[in-house]
Design goal:
With 205 residues, the chain is mainly α. α1 crosses α3. The longest helix has 27 residues. The mean pLDDT is 85.
Length: 205
């Protein structure tokens, strides 16, 4: 997964940003909540047409999303913390296309298609994590639950959402390309689930 490479590159920076939070014993869940609040602020700024400032705030929220994991790993990883982390991520990602849809009716069709494809990637992600609980699958010790791999992850999502901020006039094209990738990512995860969740493939079909 592409995210793994970006995390390795950004980990020193995230550790630096996390230092003051760790020093003052700030709970990782509060940092997750702060990151979500940045997403809602970014949503408001998009509606006001302040896309450049909105992008900065959105990326700040994504940095905080990485910082909460650093803090959790230094203190204590909890299942609830992992749960709200991914839920807040999905809310944050959905707020961006929603804002551009509300800001311009011409974005409604392709923006809505994109939001629909988010259900595919997110449900496949959570579905595999749920069924993994009954299987022996190697889990990343830095995660509170099993994170399925694949080419569709946070890095690509943030990249395409950032393009929407930078080129709002190309929103429909960006949303269309992103939607296709989300569909392919969902198919990839379904196939992955087929491989790892059922040993007896004759029982599947």
């Amino acid at each position: 997964m592409i995210d793994q490479y970006f995390i390795k590159i950004l980990k020193p920076f995230l550790g630096f940003v996390a230092s003051p939070f760790y020093k003052f014993d700030v709970n990782a869940n509060y940092i997750s909540l702060l990151g979500l609040s940045m997403s809602f602020l970014s949503f408001y700024l998009i509606l006001e047409g302040l896309n450049n400032i909105a992008l900065f705030v959105f990326l700040l929220g994504r940095i905080l999303d990485g910082v909460d994991g650093i803090i959790a790993n230094k203190t204590r990883i909890t299942e609830f913390g992992g749960f709200i982390d991914i839920v807040f991520d999905l809310i944050s990602y959905s707020l961006v296309p929603l804002a551009f849809i509300l800001n311009d009716n011409s974005n409604a069709i392709f923006g809505s298609i994109l939001l629909a494809t988010f259900f595919g990637t997110s449900s496949a992600f959570f579905g595999i994590a749920i069924f993994e609980n009954n299987k022996f699958i190697k889990r990343n010790p830095e995660k509170s639950f099993y994170h399925v791999g694949g080419f569709m992850g946070g890095a690509i999502t943030i990249f395409f959402l950032s393009l929407m901020f930078l080129f709002p006039e190309k929103f429909n094209l960006i949303a269309l390309i992103f939607s296709v990738l989300c569909i392919l990512g969902t198919i990839e995860r379904i196939f992955y689930a087929y491989i790892i969740l059922d040993k007896d493939k004759d029982l599947l079909w």
